[in-house]
């Protein structure tokens, strides 16, 4: 356990506060100190709320002394992607259009974390309206990778990945519609959980695509993600799509053994055309999982390119439908990349959109049939190692669109199928940039992929490495 | 199903209430075209009774071990 509070895991710091080994004020000061050092380099925060955070921390300490812990996150300062509404607070959604938008309601996910005792540290940068996979933002500037400035964080939860990676917040909410939690987790060397569609309420979270949007955490460890998910999962009267499926004991799952679990390695698509360093990392991860007792087998999945295509059609149309009014009234207020992506929907007829939605159940059933007997599928999050901000800037670099298409190639099928997927750091490139893998699970079985992720992290230290201030 | 031409994009955009010029229509056609190519094998082949809500049913399918 680190002596600098900000470097502790969420699980460690929550326990230390509850046991009064650390005060919430000490912990919050430690985070604010690191934020002051790193923010000028990273641009990870949208807003830093130092004074309110310290005031809330002092109140949390007083409440703990008087009444005991409010919940499992008592006094823990957290910051989240700036698209989770909190009544009375600005939620920019990474946009110019909502620069001054003050929410009148609080998102269910955020409220459940507050109910568990978490306090607000500020808000985190993101791709404009969560519609970009790299971390570029035309209005607020790019977010930088804490492992190497000038390199992308991945998006759209760019600030969440960067801030957790640099240990500026113990965990952060992200959202994953086409890979927006897993890519920042992958490129920033943290753990990110894309949940089953319907597992966590989306009420009060900025929408992008109602059929694909999911709310989930990024944190240092699988155990931390399990803690966050357990607090947020479950039905919600404010979101009829939030499922009544039983909520598992995710934290307990992280203590289980992976002996006898069957992990599938795809025969194609996810192993094709990989950067050699990603391929090396995949092989090493498979080897370690075998050593830990998992039964690793080959699996032939249905055509993933068709799933990617269907995902793109659904996402494009649903996003444009949400944005239509602003596309008419304020097109000049969008960043060029985001407006271009929104306009892509204008090629898709209503019939094509509905066909892409109608196929979803059949496609999921085909996946279930193909993975009979398999507990999780392992795959890289991205076939590429982390690109630079310059080479992935659609506004400037030739070939940037091709880079963007490639880095999102392995994430979209999971969104279309609505499956859970845990991204974990599994190695580093020769130049010191993180490489991650995703563990793709069964619908509403986040527990099993958390079990595997936690077992991997008990046997490795990739998740525990901390970048140094450049 | 083939990828939409710029002319078809212009027509759909107009009907959507978001008209675009020829240059933008061409860019959209190029950008979204691969998604149409990828979905071509599925388009027009789905059984009559398949509803979007079948997805929620598929989420509850159990995987045997």
Automatic annotation (TrEMBL), chain A:
It comes from the Bacteria. Signal peptide: none annotated. InterPro entries: Amidase, Amidase_CS, Amidase_dom, AS_sf. Transmembrane segments: none annotated. Residues 26-450 form the Amidase domain. PANTHER family: AMIDASE AMID-RELATED, TRANSAMIDASE. Hydrolyzes indole-3-acetamide (IAM) into indole-3-acetic acid (IAA). This is Indoleacetamide hydrolase. The lineage of its organism: Bacteria, Pseudomonadati, Pseudomonadota, Alphaproteobacteria, Hyphomicrobiales.
UniProtKB/TrEMBL annotation, chain B:
This is Uncharacterized protein. It comes from Bradyrhizobium denitrificans.
């Amino acid at each position: 356990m680190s002596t600098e509070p900000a470097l502790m895991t969420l699980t460690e710091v929550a326990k230390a506060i509850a046991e009064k080994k650390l005060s919430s004020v000490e912990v919050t000061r430690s985070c604010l100190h690191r934020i002051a050092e790193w923010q000028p380099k990273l641009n990870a925060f949208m807003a830093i709320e130092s004074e309110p955070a310290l005031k809330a921390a002092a109140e949390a300490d007083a409440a703990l002394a008087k009444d005991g812990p409010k919940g499992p996150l008592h006094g823990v300062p957290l910051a989240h992607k700036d698209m989770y509404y909190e009544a009375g607070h600005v939620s920019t959604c990474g946009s110019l259009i909502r620069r001054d938008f003050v929410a009148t309601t609080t998102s269910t996910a955020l409220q459940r974390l507050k109910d568990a005792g978490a306090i607000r540290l500020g808000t985190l940068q993101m791709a404009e309206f969560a519609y970009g996979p790299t971390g570029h933002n035309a209005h607020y500037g790019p977010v930088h990778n804490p492992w190497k400035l000038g390199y992308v964080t991945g998006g759209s939860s760019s600030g969440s990945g960067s801030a957790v990676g640099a240990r500026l917040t113990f965990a952060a909410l992200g959202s994953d519609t086409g890979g927006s939690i897993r890519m920042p987790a992958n490129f920033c060397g943290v753990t990110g959980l894309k949940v089953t569609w319907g597992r966590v309420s989306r009420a009060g979270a900025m929408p992008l695509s109602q059929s694909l949007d999911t709310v989930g955490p990024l944190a240092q460890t699988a155990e931390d993600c399990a803690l966050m998910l357990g607090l947020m999962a479950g039905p919600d009267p404010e979101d009829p799509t939030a499922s009544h499926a039983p909520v598992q004991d995710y934290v307990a799952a992280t203590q289980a053994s992976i002996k006898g679990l069957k992990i599938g390695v795809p025969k194609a698509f996810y192993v094709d055309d990989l950067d050699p360093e990603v391929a090396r990392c995949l092989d090493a991860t498979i080897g370690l999982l075998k050593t830990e007792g998992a039964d690793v087998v080959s699996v032939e999945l249905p055509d993933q390119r068709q799933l990617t295509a269907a995902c793109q059609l659904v996402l494009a149309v649903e996003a444009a439908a949400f944005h239509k009014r602003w596309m008419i009234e304020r097109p000049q207020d969008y960043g060029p990349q985001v407006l271009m992506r929104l306009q892509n929907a204008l090629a898709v007829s209503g019939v094509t959109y509905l066909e892409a939605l109608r196929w979803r159940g059949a496609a999921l059933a085909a996946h279930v049939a193909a993975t009979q007997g398999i507990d999780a599928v392992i795959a890289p999050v991205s076939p590429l190692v982390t690109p630079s901000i310059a080479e992935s800037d659609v506004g400037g670099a030739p070939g940037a669109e091709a880079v963007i298409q490639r880095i999102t190639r392995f994430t979209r099928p999971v969104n279309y199928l609505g499956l859970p997927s845990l991204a974990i750091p599994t190695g580093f490139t020769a130049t010191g940039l993180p490489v991650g893998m995703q563990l793709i699970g069964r619908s509403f079985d986040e527990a099993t992929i958390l079990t595997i992720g936690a077992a991997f992290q008990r046997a490795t230290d990739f998740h525990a490495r901390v970048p140094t201030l450049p | 199903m083939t990828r939409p031409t710029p002319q078809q994009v212009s027509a759909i955009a107009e009907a959507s209430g978001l008209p675009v010029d020829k240059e933008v229509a061409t860019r959209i056609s190029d950008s979204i075209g691969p998604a149409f190519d990828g979905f071509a094998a599925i388009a027009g082949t789905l059984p009559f009774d398949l509803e979007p809500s079948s997805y929620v049913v598929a989420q509850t399918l159990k995987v045997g071990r």
